[in-house]
Amino acid sequence: MSDQIRRIFVDSRLRNADTSKSNADFSVDLPQEVACPSGTQIRIDNLVMSHSWPTIDDRNDKLYIKEIPGDTTYHRVIELRHGIYNKGTIAAQVQIQLRAGTHISDGQYIVSFVDNNVTFTNSSPTASVIIYSRADVHSKNSIPIFYPFLGGYLESGYDFNAIWQGADEIAPLPSPLADCCEILGVMRSRLHLTPGIVVTCSHIDLQRHKSLYLCSKSLPCHSMDLRGRGDILKQILVGNATVGSVIVDALPSMVNFSHFVSYSVLKHLNFTIRDHEGTIANLYDHEISFTIELLRPSDQ
Hints:
Number of helices: 4
Helix content: under 10%
Number of domains: 2
Radius of gyration: 25 Å
Distance between the termini: 21 Å
Oligomer: single chain
Strand content: 35-45%
Structural class: mainly beta
Order of helices and strands: EEEEEHEEEHEEHEHEEEEEEEE
Shape: elongated
């Protein structure tokens, strides 16, 4: 057992194959036990990873719309093709998928990009369309529904699953809902496409993650997020990185934020990389590495 180790270099490529699931959910076995007396301070530094996730994948590839071409109403689930997009190509992809399988026969969807905003219109002179917002999909808005059912009548509601029943023809709702509203800027208010009207979304946002979080139940953590997670070792700032670039997160000072409150021995360590919702991130098989630095009371 060593009490001389000051730095441990962790690399997910050297993870334990039996107890690891991915480069974002992995464990490592130290080649020797490392002693950490009470009061030993710990910091995570020199974290390196790749911006390897696409703009659209199975966590944000759906758009939920209601088409009203006449007397019959339709609820459709639009699924975007997975991949990396820029401002122009995301608008083109949304247009392609909106036009595919539409129930509106006397017009077509037009999706454009103007002044950093996505715009929607439909050339139909008679039909109307509702595009549900992120707040709608996450059941944070009250939505008119006018839905008669056995034993009652629902005029409005917050439950998106119930709202979805308020159409004559209904596509099945997937689980999870995985909406792309944040990417397109359809945040608080739903969009109403009526004949001759161009509707503009709020600011487009192609950056999937602004921050990720390195978490561990093997090391002392003295942080908390607003969901109550108490195993966060480090916030990883990734919002200024572009797809395919390398993210380097190094601390500008020697400040320590965690310490061992009792004598501990390090041998088996586990780590996860999570997003702001606490979900394990998909790094698409790309590795992550960082340094664990130890400062013992005898060093001070």
